[in-house]
Amino acid sequence: MHDYDALRVTRPEWFTNTPGGIDIETSPDAVARAGGVIYQDTRRIVLCDAVTFPGGPPGTYLRTMSASPRPGAAVLPMLPDGRLVLVEHFRHATRSWHLEAPRGFGAAGLASSDTAAKELSEEIGANAPELLALGRVHPDTGALGDEVRLFAALIASVGALATSEGIRKALTVTFEEAEAMVRDGQITDGLTIALLYRARLHGLASPAAPLYAGAKPAGRHRAVVGV
Predict the structure, then answer these.
(1) Fewer CB under 10 Å: which end of the chain, C or N?
(2) Residues 128, 153: contact at Cβ < 8 Å?
């Protein structure tokens, strides 16, 4: 109960009720009935809220939130010849290997562009002082409260892989090959699919397209568009 009340103070945006939506009930009895904070670690907070559905009876609703106040970041690495870099990453949640773009949780005090650059360095040993922001995405609005910022980054090469994180290889593919992998079901990771779609909408699908068209990046880890 105490942890739930503390979150209402520190993260009030998590408890906003919108007319016509699903209302959260915050009375002590309602919170005790639902469970409130049922799990918390340095990365995740799992809440079971007492809710009232529109025109319906009271109930409960489970949601998972990022413990960090900063959004996570996912980044699409691009080599000078226009080829993309994807990693083969083992994911515990699905107990299987996935082809993905580098990504990571947000951290207090870090801009999303810094998080993206940090993940590039940690996962594939690449340096990207400048990134192009591709907008934001909510990975699973039915269960996750997370927001992830998307970026593209021009890198010179791939370095050491984070094998200790479950990454076993890096692949370089053309944009068309990556999209074919989405079509054929070889790429199923939602954030990677969102990155490819946003990159195409930003005109990055052509190898001849400059990553920073119309913009002049400046400053370490500075995002050209957005944050």
Answers:
(1) N
(2) yes
